[in-house]
Structures are given as structure tokens and as C-alpha cells.
Amino acid sequence: MPMQTKEAKMKRLALIFVTLLSMTGVLVPMTQAADENISGRIVCHNEKLEMIEVGDLPGHIMGVLKQSGLYFASTGEIATTQFTSFINYINGAGTLNVQQVTTFQDGSKWFINSAGTAKPALGGKKTIFEGTWEVSGGTARFEGVKGKGTFKGERIGDLKTGADSYFDVTGTMTMK
């Protein structure tokens, strides 16, 4: 009988060990991939604008806009950012779809797709923006990153003359 008891204890210990090992394999990745709140401000300048008058309605334009600037994260980190925006406006109001590449000082990048709306204010001297963003990928420390959030901002100056813009961004990211 003592042999059977020892054997039974060993089997129970092995079962407990395998169970703990399995739980560790599930729980550790979950704790490593926790959502992180992010926020910051992007300040950028319009570098190039290509647009056409659509002609179906007065004031209807579509265009492609290139912008570049800086992302000031609430953590104190600063990164460069470049945008390509596709706009569809009637009298300064409409939609925008944006592809963005942000490059951090260590060379890591994240890629973001945004969609939003634009509304003119102050007689067209400024434009108010708001919308949502979602991470589409990343490199180096942002490899496998996931995230989404919202943005609000404004453009100061006329779109056609190389105006400046800022965007306040908030959201969550899950780092691997």
C-alpha cells in the first residue's frame, strides 16, 4: 500500500504542476497585452494640396493633402508624423480619410487610419475636425500593436494657402 500512496501523490503533484503550467501559459500573455491609455497633441503643416472642383454642386471639391508635423505624447515622448488625407468637401464641410505614419526617436513606427468630419468656422478662416482613428500596424517596439480612439482639432488658415492644424488624440493601445 505505501507504494500505491506514493504513486497516487506523484500523479496528483504532476497534475497540479501541469495545470499551473497551463494557466501560466494563458495568464502571462494576458497581463503582458494590457490596454494602455494614450493621449497627445499633433501639430502639423499643410505641405501640398491637389484638388479638383467636382462640378455637381457649387463649392464641391475633392482632394489629396500632404501634411507633416510633430506628435507630442502625454508621456513626454515626441515623434515626427506624416499624413496623407483624402478630402471631400462642399463649401468647406465634409469628410476626410487619413493615413498616418508616426516615427519615434528610436525608429519605431505606428501606422494609423482615421476617418472624420470637417466643419468651417469663423467664415472659413478655421475648420473644426473630429473623428476616429485605428492602428493598422507598427514596427520595432510597436510590432503587433492594436489600438483605436478619437481626435478633435482645428485648422487655422485657408486650406489652399498652406494652413497649420492641431489634433488632440485620445484612445487605447494594446502593446505586445
Q: What is the compact description of this entry?
A:
By secondary structure, this protein is an alpha+beta fold. Helices cover 18% and strands 60% of the residues. It has one helix and eight strands; from the N terminus they run H-E-E-E-E-E-E-E-E.
CATH topology of the largest domain: the name is Porin
Number of strands: 8
The CATH class name of the largest domain reads: Mainly Beta
Largest sheet: 8 strands, antiparallel, barrel
Helix share, percent:
10-25%
Span of the ends, CA to CA: 51 Å
Beta content: over 45%
How many structural domains in the coordinates? 2
| Shape, per Cα inertia axes | elongated
Q: Going across the biggest sheet, name each strand in turn.
A: 1-2-3-4-5-6-7-8
Unreliable segments of 5+ consecutive residues: 18-31
How would you describe the overall organization of this protein?
The chain has 176 residues and is α+β, with helices and mostly antiparallel strands. The chain folds into two domains: 1-32; 35-174, Porin (Beta Barrel), CATH 2.40.160. It is 18% helix and 60% strand. It has one helix and eight strands. It has one helix at 2-32, and strands at residues 35-53, 60-73, 78-90, 93-104, 109-121, 126-138, 146-156, 164-174. Strands 1-2-3-4-5-6-7-8 form an eight-stranded antiparallel β-barrel. The longest helix has 31 residues, at 2-32. The chain is elongated and about 90 Å long. The protein starts with a helix and ends with a strand.
